[in-house]
Each structure stands twice: as structure tokens, then as C-alpha cells.
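**User:** Everyone, produce a chain:

**Assistant:**
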Amino acid sequence: MRLQPITWDRLTEALADRVLALKALDGGDRLRIGLDGAPAAGTGELAEALAQALRVRGRSPLVVAAEGFLRPASLRYEHGHQDPDSYVDGWFDASALWREVFGPLEPGGSGRVLPDLWDPVADRATRSAPVELPSGGVLLLHGPLLLGRWFPFDLSVHIRLGPGSLRRRTPDDQHWTLPAFERYEQEATPQETADVLIRADDPRHPAWNG
């Protein structure tokens, strides 16, 4: 696949324009955008920049981090604190994301989205209040391992780091997750299944498939 060099500012503006042209696949009146990538890829930064670009265009965005939907420590660490397979299969509460984030955005849904559910540091529920995403609003869900879970994204974006870049940009105490992302690339093939692919090995000079 040929990728074109681009700046982050131009990429963000182009993504915002693409979002404006979308219609929800389920016929609803709110869009669901997935921004997928390892923590080192900076999906949160792109989500916030895209949210600002959408606000300027008159759309209401809601940024939600997948890390706010981790499962309790007793489940995450059932097979040890540094088990790559558990990280892929058992750390993120996909059922809660379906129930608390995607469910309310279905046609006829309340639009009231829970922005987070679990505080992994305190290991307890956050007790955050639901946030209403108005008609015409855009959900921006960002985080790792989002693709291949059948989440109903109207547009999926994957920020890819090659193995060397991912290792260099991942803190040493998180290197145990590297095999998890290798498995994810093999099984979910996000570089092939995402609607938009961004290569960010050099964070100053991204490239994308347009």
C-alpha cells in the first residue's frame, strides 16, 4: 500500500472533512469513529485534535479513552501482571463498551454515554456521570486493540508503528506488551482492515493512505 507524507495538521483537517461527509452505517444520527493504536502511537492526541477540528465545523465531539474501560485488577492479573495474551484478551471490558458507549448511540438510543467506567489505579468504579452526545454528534473512541472486536465504527483509523519504533517509544516497564501488539497485528490485521492507515514511525513526519 502506498502512503503519502502529510503533516499532522493537514491530516487532522482532512479527517475532519471526511467525518463531515459520513453517514452512520446503522442509519442513526450520531457517528462513531475509532482511533486505534498502541499507547506509544498517541491516539489520544489525535482524538483531541480531531475533536477541536470538528467543533470548528459545528459538530459536537465526545472523546472517550478505551483505557477508561479496563476490567478489575483481579481479572486483568489473573495470569500474572505481565501476560501479553491477557492484555489482548482480558484487559479491556468490551462488553461495557458495547453497553455504555455504543448502545446509547444506536438509533432511538438515549445518546447518554458513560465516558469511563473503571479507575485502574484505585481499582474501583469511577462513578462518572453519563455525558449526552446530541444528535449529529461524533464519538471519538481511542486506544489500543480496538479493531477485530466488531465494534460498529463508521470510520476506523489505525496509527501504526513498526516493531522498532514501537519498542523505542514504549517505556521499558511496558515492553512486556510488545508481543501482544505483534499478535494483534497478525490476528486483527489493523493495517489492512482500518479505513484509514497512518504510519507514524517518525512522529514528526506521518504518512497515510488518504
Q: What stands out?
A: The first strand starts at residue 4 and ends at 5. The chain has eight helices and eleven strands.
